[in-house]
Amino acid sequence: MSLTCAYCKEEGHTKFACEKKLKADKARAARMAKRNDDTKSETSEISTAVSSNSARRNTKPQRPQRGVLTESEEREARKIEKKLREIAALEDRLAAGSPLDVLQEKKLDRKLELESSAVMQKVRRGYLRVELAAAQ
Ligand SMILES: [Zn+2]
């Protein structure tokens, strides 16, 4: 009984040891993998487009998105900015030679702390600000 390849009909090896069959299988596997990748990336592009569309329409509070402040962060940022404006006004008075009382000096001491708060760092990094509902 001679050994004949069922794939390429050559003698001396079986189809399980056939180099031609092995090559063909590999090429087919590569083609399949590529097709799967293409399908996957198309699907994710579609789902991204859909989710950003619905985010634009939806006015309810969103999960925190990268690059956008949440409503609570926006509120905190506005509070801090108000304090920083007060501090800036105090600094102006100090620069103009007006004496500050103890409470005002304490406010000045908090400037660095306020500026380095997590939410103000986000604002400086260019996070988008959000609109807040008028009634709180
Ligand atoms: Zn063969």
TrEMBL record:
Chain segments carrying region Disordered: 29-77
Biased composition (Polar residues): 44-56
Domain of life: Eukaryota
Annotated Basic and acidic residues bias: 29-43
Entry protein name: ATP-dependent Clp protease ATP-binding subunit clpA-like
Species assigned in the record: Durusdinium trenchii
Lineage summary: Eukaryota, Sar, Alveolata, Dinophyceae, Suessiales
